[in-house]
Amino acid sequence: MKTRMLCLLPVILVCSFCSVAFWFFLTNNNVITRPVSKIPQKGSDASESCKGCKDSVLITKALENYSSKWKKQEANFKKFRSLLSSKCHAVSKAVVTQSNTPLGSNVVYDGERRKPLQVTPALFSIFAKEQPFRNATFESCAVVGNGGILSNSSCGQKINSAQFVIRCNLPPLGNGHEQDVGNKTNLVTANPSILHEKYSGLMDRRRPFVESLRPYGQALLLLPAFSYAHNTPVSLRAFYTLEDFGREGPLPVFLNPDYMRRLSKFWRERGLNSVRPSTGLIMASLALEICTNVHLYGFWPFNKHPHDNRSITNHYYDDRESKKNVHSMPTEFEHLLKLHKQGVVHIHLGDCQPNRR
Length: 357
Ligand SMILES: *[C@@H]1O[C@H](CO)[C@@H](O)[C@H](O)[C@H]1NC(C)=O
Ligand SMILES: *[C@@H]1O[C@H](CO)[C@@H](O)[C@H](O)[C@H]1NC(C)=O
Ligand SMILES: *[C@@H]1O[C@H](CO)[C@@H](O)[C@H](O)[C@H]1NC(C)=O
Ligand SMILES: *[C@@H]1O[C@H](CO)[C@@H](O)[C@H](O)[C@H]1NC(C)=O
Ligand SMILES: *[C@@H]1O[C@H](CO)[C@@H](O)[C@H](O)[C@H]1NC(C)=O
Known about the structure:
Blueprint: H1 2-16, H2 18-33, H3 48-64, H4 74-88, H5 90-93, E1 106-107, E2 117-118, H6 121-125, E3 138-144, H7 156-160, E4 164-167, H8 178-181, E5 187-189, H9 192-199, H10 207-212, E6 220-223, H11 231-245, E7 251-254, H12 257-268, H13 279-290, E8 291-297, H14 329-341, E9 346-348
Parallel strand pairs: 3-4, 3-8, 4-5, 5-6, 6-7, 8-9
Antiparallel strand pairs: 1-2
Residues 52, 56, 308-309 line the site of one 2-acetamido-2-deoxy-beta-D-glucopyranose.
């Protein structure tokens, strides 16, 4: 019965939400593959010079609040963290668990108003038994965005040295990227869009999916299964695939829409008027609740490097353009820069010297 429903779901969605679904596949892709998107559009070479000026104005403005000589300001950190925890409760709510989402209750999608999903015994049985961040206070966390600024950064060692490493949307780690991005992963997100793009929505062979997750070891695989109804079936397929074939691999868990609602509200109240925060901001916010020192890498929404003006690609692993999205990246980045300035999070923009911490 349940299986049948899951099979039917996509059909129903395709019929009634065709354009919406397509839009969100695109946008969700942006969300994760590029936590902080570029503000200016990449133009043709002809408009390059003018775009350059505009870029440099934006970069100069952004750098006003950036200092590479960063020092943590304990009082600001504590204040921000306690505010965030009191409103969002990541520790007890970030992940769907059997205690925060009981049998018979309703899961209310955070990204769309539609019929909530009832927690059936079958669904309940795959919810995490325990909150993975219960009591978690990691000494240091690295949240690794996928920005091209990480290319040739030599930040891999520094990223690996964090106690807890968070990555976004199953980014490539091998192929020579290790030096720049490291290879340690404790949590990695997987958006439905990438499951569709890279793994045929897990409708065909599933082993390649399981095998491609090897680099993440036994990290938590965070699936935003309950943001939009069309995300649910593919996320459940990812879950079942790992349950069936991935014993040694990542541990799939579901992002809690209740946490997402709280987080969206938190940032909305601070002037972020996007539909919902990007994955990068979600992960940075999560880290702020569970880590004592939060380092952000690969967050830079411009296509020129701040230090030497060299061109940088869209992602550290490719230069694929992303379409416009539902997030307001410039505003998000401004907020993060503000926290950087206040000594709350440490944004790393420069290249790292591998042997120095
Ligand atoms: C820099 O910080 C100041 C004061 O905190 C703020 O008013 C300004 O908007 C910030 N600029 C940018 C580009 O974030
Ligand atoms: C972890 O949390 C549980 C319940 O919140 C508590 O009973 C336990 O003592 C905590 N453990 C540690 C090591 O803090
Ligand atoms: C990285 O460095 C290599 C070798 O120096 C160079 O060919 C490449 O263009 C650089 N990539 C970026 C994005 O700067
Ligand atoms: C990361 O790379 C190092 C060196 O190549 C290797 O020893 C280690 O096992 C790798 N770690 C993970 C989690 O893949
Ligand atoms: C980068 O370009 C801007 C504008 O073209 C210029 O003002 C700035 O000095 C350049 N910075 C470096 C490090 O070359």
